[in-house]
Every structure is written in structure tokens, then in C-alpha cells.
Protein: Glucose--fructose oxidoreductase
Amino acid sequence: MSEKKINVALVGLGFGAEFIPIYQAHPNANMYAICQRSEEHLNKIGNTFNIEKRYTSYDELLADPDVDAVHINTPIPDHAPQSIKALKAGKHVACTVPMATTVEECEQIVNTVKETGLKYMMMETVVYSREFLFIKEMYDKGELGKIQYMQASHPQDMEGWPEYWERMIPMHYATHVVSPVLGMVNGRAEYVSCFGSGTVNDDIAEKSGNKFAVETCHIKIKDSDIAAHIWRFLFDTARQYRESVDVYGTKKSFEWPLIEGENPVLHTAKKPEPEIPERVEVPDYAHLLPPEIQKFTRAIHDADHLSFLQGAGHGGSHPHLVNAFLKSLVIDSEPWPNAPLSANWTSVGILAHESAVAGGELKKLPEFTLE
Ligand SMILES: NC(=O)c1ccc[n+]([C@@H]2O[C@H](COP(=O)([O-])OP(=O)(O)OC[C@H]3O[C@@H](n4cnc5c(N)ncnc54)[C@H](O)[C@@H]3O)[C@@H](O)[C@H]2O)c1
Structure:
């Protein structure tokens, strides 16, 4: 890449603070400013990482002409309004998942990106995790054969997390399961059908406006014969956290471990029955990164943050995300996922919930997510 340096501002410093040392080490970034609401934590992070430019006001940050790009890690309801504001202020946007919580907001972001010519990337950890990169590499080399089916699960008991999670609908945070099944085959969702199952307690049902404990959705992939299945829960169901994806091919299939920390299983067709399954060690993909940030696939700054206690370090994805975003800015290419693709991944979850409320009715993804 060139010597060009992008002035990056990080907004939201819980999970977001993890990205600071990566930007500081990346040859194409200047970790220019940080922003979060409370001054005390802002100064703590600013002092820890030696960052001078500090903002408690997002609007003041956006008024700073030296900011080239913002990386947003604020609570979910802020993602869409803050992304749109930043684009309108002339800043490129990287935003943590999900893109938005309504299809209308997704469309506004896609349109604002078109109008401004700026970049938008949703920072989806799963599609830059070593597990995803491993399966995708096998698939791209033809080792899996033809993919016949995929399934992905994201059970996570969010009791004890920040309060805004109690107001969330499980499928509104579904990108960790939608993105790997669509990303594996570079496909777009065409339509979905989802069922709700079980019930959450009255308090959560009232705060979230959703009564279902589990939401379970089928996705028809456009221009493909593959249907994928995903499921999600946030409260009142017993299970260890897991962000899994299983991929079934004609030659080989990959199955995620049932328990965190175990190795996944690779099944090979046409072998004697006991030899079909084999536990495999997933390799790291740091070699795809500039040397300065390779160490961050294995390093976590705040290992006690709930996102990592439940989150398995996000598969070493953080430096890959930073690199993909900066690369798109430096060489002026479309980031992956760009705005329409992020909108497709995010809208699957939003429409899945609408489908569940309507008893499983088929919901089509809007045209602007298929571009
Ligand atoms: N694997 C993943 O992709 C992953 C993992 C963890 C968190 N996340 C996402 O990151 C986001 C933050 O999660 P978290 O656990 O760090 O939450 P958190 O509540 O711990 O932190 C939120 C941060 O945003 C700041 N903030 C809130 N409103 C703001 C505003 N208006 N302007 C500026 N700053 C503001 C807060 O001060 C705080 O620093 C969530 O949207 C979550 O979905 C993604």
C-alpha cells in the first residue's frame, strides 16, 4: 500500500478501545482523536494510549476538519444516526454491527454513501475471524465441493450487560450469523421466513417489545439453490455463548464445536464411517496483514470486557477489520462489506423479526440491498 495516512477518530470506548493500539500500529493510520460521553473514562483512555484530541461531544468531533474517518462503537440505537451524520459531515465511516435497526435507516445510509461518494464499512467481526477465513479458504480451493447447506447460531445470555440490550430484539443483532452464511458464497439474501419460539419473562418482553425467547430463520440465497438456517436468543434460555457456523459441502463439511475452546470437526465424505470426522486446529491468518499489526490477532487489551469473556476474542478479527477499512480508503476501493451488502446482512434480521411476528410470512429483501 502507499504511504498515505488516514486521520481516524474512535467513537465509543468500551469495546471500541480495543481498536486504538491497532490503528496506532498500522502504517496507514494516524490514531487522531477519541470520543465518548463521560470525561473521566475519555481521559483514562486518552492517557493510557497517549491521544491528545479528546471529545465528549460527537458533533464537535465531526466539526473537526482534520478527522478523515470515524470508527463508531456506540450503543446500537446510535449506529445509524451517527453514521449518517458523519457521512454528511464529509467523514468516511466504519461502524460496528448492526448497521441499523430499521430497513429505512439502512436505505438512508446506502443513499448517503451514494450521494457523498464516501466509504461505509460495517465492522463485522465474524467474516474476518480465523474460523471464517479457514472455511472460506477451503471452499475457494474446492476442497468442500459444492455447498449444500449452512447453519449458524448465536445464543448469548445478555443478563448483566448494559441496559440497552434489554430493549433489543434478538434478530436485530443477527449479523454474526447472517454474515458468515452469505459471505461464504458471496451471496445476498433474497427472502426470509422466521418463527418465534418460547417466551421471555414479562419484564424483558415489555422493554424489548418482543415476546419470543428464540428466533429461528431460513434465508433463501439469491441466484443460488442454497437455503441457510440461523437462530438467536438474548435472554431466558440456558446455553453457553456461541457464535457458530456449520458449512456442509459435497466433499467436506465443517462443524463448529459445541463447547468454547474445543476444536471444530471436519467431515470427509466417502471414508469408512469412523474416519469421516476429524478434529482440526484452525490456523491463524496474521500473515495476510501488514507486519506491524500481525500480533493483534492474538492480543486483547481489555480481556475482562464482557465482549471478550463472551466473544472468544472475536477470532482474531480486529486487525483484519482495521486493515480492510484503511485499505479501502488508501486505494479507493469498495470495502467488504460495503453499504448495500451491510444493509442486506442487517435487514435479514430486521425482516426476520417482522416475519416471526406475522407467523413466518415470507419477507423479501428490498432492491437497494441487492445492488
Ligand atoms: N463482535 C462484535 O462485533 C461486537 C462485540 C462487542 C460490542 N460490539 C458493539 O459495540 C458497541 C458498543 O458495545 P460495548 O459493549 O462497548 O458498549 P458499552 O456500553 O460498554 O460502551 C459504549 C461506549 O459508547 C459511548 N457512547 C455512548 N453514547 C455516545 C454518544 N452519543 N457519543 C459518543 N460516545 C457515546 C459510551 O461513552 C461508551 O464509551 C455495541 O453497539 C455493540 O453492538 C460489537
